[in-house]
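Hi team,

Filling in the usual template for the complex we talked about on Friday. All components are listed, including any nucleic acid strands or ligand strings, so the model treats them as one assembly.

SUBMITTER: L.P.
PURPOSE: interface mapping
COMPONENTS: two
RESIDUES: 946
SEQUENCES:
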Amino acid sequence: MATERFFPKSSPGAHGIQYREPLIFERSEQGRMGVSLPDAGVPEADPASEIPAELLRGEIENMPSVTEVQAVRHFVRLSQLNYSVDTGFFPLGSCTMKFNPKVNEWAARLPGFAGAHPYLPEEQSQGALELMYRLERMLSEIAGLHVTTLEPAAGAQGELSGLMMIRAWHMANHGKPRKKVLIPDSAHGTNPASAALNGYVAVELKSNKDGVLEPETVAAAMDEDVAAIMMTNPNTLGIFETHVKEIAEIVHARGGLVYGDGANMNALLGRARPGDMGIDVMQYNLHKTFSTPHGGGGPGSGPVSVAKTLEPFLPRPIVVKDGNHYHLEFDRPQSVGKLRTFWGNFGMMVRAYTYMRELGPEGLKACSDLAVLNAQYIRALIEKEWNVPYGNRSLHEVVYNDKNLKETGCTTMDVAKALVDHGYHPPTVYFPLIVPGAIMVEPTETETKETLENFAQAMMAIAAQAREEPEALKEMPKKPIVERLDETRAARKPVLRWTPGFGAEE
Amino acid sequence: MRYHPHTESDIREMLAKIGVQSLDELFTSIPQSLQMDRPLAVEPALDERALMEHLEELAAKQPKAVPFLGAGAYPHHVPPSVDQLLLRGELYTAYTPYQPEIAQGTLQITFEFQTFVTLLTGLEIANASMYDGASATAEAALMSIRVGNGKRSKVVVSKALHPEYRETVRTYLGEGFELVEVAFDPLTGKTDLAALEAAVDANTAGVIIGYPNFFGVVDDLPGASKIAQQHGALCISATTEALAFGLLQAPGQLGADIAVGEMQSFGNGVNFGGPGLGFFATREKFLRQFPGRVAGATVDRKGERGFVLTLSTREQHIRREKATSNICTNHGLNAAAATIHLSMLGKHGLRAMALLNWRRAKYAREQLAAKGLEPVFSGPVFNEFAVHAPKDAVQRIGEAGLAGGLKLDRYYTELGDGLLLCVTELHDKARIDALVAALS
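RESULT (copied from the run log):
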């Protein structure tokens, strides 16, 4: 095979990763320590003088003992086993991995923010509260909704709190919460789980052949037991739900509410607002739309914007401005309560606010324009070789699949693993579930035209290899420190922690 | 725009390849009537330097002093090495490890985090990074109901548990379940075991007790777990200050079936209360019932050790309506911070740090008592405690250039003059003496 074909010039990470790093528990040597502690500077005392013996413990067996140097090397080496946005293109559809600006990290670490205690008196929290208030105002404007709670810790917790507000609204207005929530098959995977955790029965609705939800489908499913519909818009195919307004009217007419999953808001910034479409409540995912880092799993932040009708039910407290004073308002008798301690993932709010102020209204609109342009450009570059079932209707992400590879025996998973050897993080695979063998690409606005072209070139090379030497493709990836991992074994014989003797059986 | 790479000719060429004339044409699937006809009314753009000045001004409105405040968020020294490692782009700009071959860093750190949580709590399995202590406590309450097969609908919680944890549990439980709060002993600050005994019955799924509790008091976890066990309920310990595990016996050794709480103290700042870092540990027999993400060890095709996310059938990916939780994005980077800090503290440092916190807090308690600010409760405490204080105590502390103290009447009207104070390794003798002087 021609080496050049598999390693385009600008692809990162193409030479693989070198380290094999033991667990920190396997690096330990008794007597070492990696921190410096001050002398207490106060009289010696023995905890046993106050705390009953049965409640005391000594040093914990099996805790590691390493120096700072050992720990630093350990975690630097581990970091080098990760693919990341800072090392390369990360086209995970629906997950939205755009550049994380460094000034955001600087801002979040300002001592006044990072060191602020949530229970400081309000007069000593004015800087933090002002930032929250200004962020809240901007998020409400972008959503086209009345007011926003910043409390939820992540988008999924935002979904949960949004549904709790819907439930509370039904209780307050009709004395019962209703039973069902309608969820299109093109919605995010967390939606049905959030509905179930909130005591609702999730009813799946089918999208039509163009990947959108028909008003007739909703009308047929809508009755007085339906509390709400949860629509992801644009949906997980990246397609705008053209009939959203009509659907909202159908649901409203039968006494239901409309929940908008705002995870894909990066396609709509400055172009369209959920509140204008009849959406009553939506969550943001600050880590997607406003560039706060995902950190290998989080933290996220999931503010929820609501129409005026739902305001009384917001989790408490909310930030309000009273003259020149910023104030946490707790006295909200109809509030659904709290979903966590304190006032939300403030560190993420600082990052999102920083990002929004760097961009301003024109910059935010440009984010959506260029995210959509980039996604459509990839589609145009690959659609000769790859099946793109919903073609040019989609916005910021493009879903294609392995249909054209059927006769080669290669699957979407083989394609994903081959992309690793080409130096790319694979796109989202096998999602959305309504596209068999789905590959979902979301390039985001921060990627260059050249990056997209190189990625498309890798996709074309993989299609060619699938036809010429399918067996080789199935062997991939070869470049990372580990090859395909046995996920079945991990689930059947779960090993979830290190214990002495760990790994001896291998 | 420095985050947007496209030149005008790039855009022209890309539009041509797509086959449209303009950017507007990319949005024709949005009905015209739903498209905005004006710019967003958000605050204007700032260049980087102006932006930094603006943020510095906002942050400068916050006080500089390290507050004598805990109550669920604890100021500790975070070694710069921890933060510099966190700032490695490979850690903070990586996604959830859905492609394990190129996410071994995150996965191994997650596995190490789970190991640390099991060591600290004395339990067998742990998940990776709940949002925070309060929501982890709520998830534990839900799990106790799942373990009870839906036949037990009551959760009993101590009134000495953090008030916001209690409110979060109530919010998560929703209707159909009963949340019963039991009183604490006004003298010791511990949960009233007689009241607990009276409240727990065959309909009780879980018993939740703070360890230490909201008042910093090392509550009677062994007593509470015996009561829970006698009635077939799960005992849940909730710890707001995980550093306490450096000194206190592991909850798993004291009968807790689930240990949850907040680990922000390791490697994470207070950040005005978020992000926090929840932890969740339980017994192996509940493997299929516990919520949240987990990393597991396995081997690759060559037989080399590696790590993957596992047991995801319990999650929102598959069988969504039967998911044990809807958690997707979690607090992974905060878990990484805790893992790094715990590695550096290690066996000896963890113990030494916990002792240091306890000693400084003891000194502060004794000095305050000597000036007439008596402890509110007689129960043993770790690094925070309540004292009877003058009404204007918080103001006086502020005027002395210090910060903090939480007036307990915010949540407990019956504790009118109670002031909750927290002392850590960041409060040296001089700062403690200044606090005492301010309140004398």
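MY TAKE: The longest helix of chain B spans residues 332-370. The radius of gyration of chain B is 25 Å.

Thanks, L.
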